[in-house]
Amino acid sequence: IFAFNFTVKNQMTPREPAAPAVEMNGILGFHIASSQLTVPSTLHSWYSQLPGISSNPASNPASAPMQSWKDPLFVLTPLFTTRMMGQTNPWPGTSNTLTVSLSTNVPMTAECATLRILRLEGACKPSGRMAYSDSDRASFEDLDGVAEGGSYLSIQDEDRDIQVGSLTFKPVADTIANQDYIFSFSVTNPTEAQNSPGIQVEGIGIPIAPTFFQKDTTTVLTSPCDAILLACRW
Q1: H or E segment at 43?
Q2: What is the C-alpha to C-alpha distance for residues 156 and 159, in angstroms, rounded to an integer?
Q3: Helix (H, G, I), strand (E, B) or coil at 102
Q4: CB of 139 within 8 A of CB of 181?
Q5: Terminal CA-to-CA distance of the chain, rounded, Å?
Q6: What is the Cα–Cα distance from 125 to 137, expressed in whole angstroms?
Q7: Inter-residue contact 82 to 173 (CB < 8 Å)
Q8: Which of 1, 10, 15, 145 is most buried by a 10 A CB count?
Q9: In angstroms, what CA-CA distances link 69 with 6, 14, 66, 106?
């Protein structure tokens, strides 16, 4: 038996498992035809059919189905598992701290991943660096590689006569799957009243489609207003 390992880098987009095969060629026309390799999911199928092996996982845990993610080159679909945002201040024309909690079902790698918050409608903030605060601020950097912040872009929506902002940032190191990362940033509220916009977050490089934030309606952050006011929640 020949046993060896080698390392590859997974692609950044989801895919189904590969169907690897092996063949052998040698001198003097020696050849063994291509044959599909046994992978974890097919190994289980073979093992469970052996005489005396129960197909009931409760009676024989060894025969429990093996997930296809163990098969070579299967790449999981990345998703946001936490996407929460809340604010501290509803008053017009005043500074407002937005606190974000994010997690994903896969690591967002420093080499490949970029994150972007979209549709920050009405926020008064010029384009440029956005400084972060809170517990996980050092986990992210802006597009210039400066830690504890992101790159903010403000565009005028001429049809609605409002500023629409986006905030782009990258992980400093590979994130941990299903771990919440919490950071805050401040903008100035619009001077005119508005309903809370549908703010979204997306993944780039490791692609995650734009996904709406869940609005924090249960926890009122430290605020200059009375915590019982619904206006102080999102």
Answers
A1: helix 40-48
A2: 9
A3: strand
A4: yes
A5: 63
A6: 19
A7: no
A8: 10
A9: 18, 11, 8, 13
188 DSSP 8-state letter: E
Question: What is the arithmetic mean of pLDDT over 191-203?
Answer: 93
> What is the C-alpha to C-alpha distance for residues 209 and 231, in angstroms, rounded to an integer?
30
Average pLDDT, the chain: 83
Tens digit of each residue's pLDDT (9 = 90 or more) over 63-73: 334 456 677 87
Q: Specify the DSSP element, H or E, that contains 46.
A: helix 40-48
Q: pTM here? A: 0.76
Q: Report d(CA 150, CA 169) in Å as an integer.
A: 5
Q: How many CA atoms lie within 13 A of 21 on its CB side?
A: 8
User: Predicted confidence band at 20 (pLDDT cuts at 50, 70, 90)?
Assistant: confident
| Residues 25, 31 contacting (CB under 8 angstroms) | yes
CA-closest candidate to residue 64, choices 52, 51, 53: 53
Q: At 23, which amino acid appears?
A: E
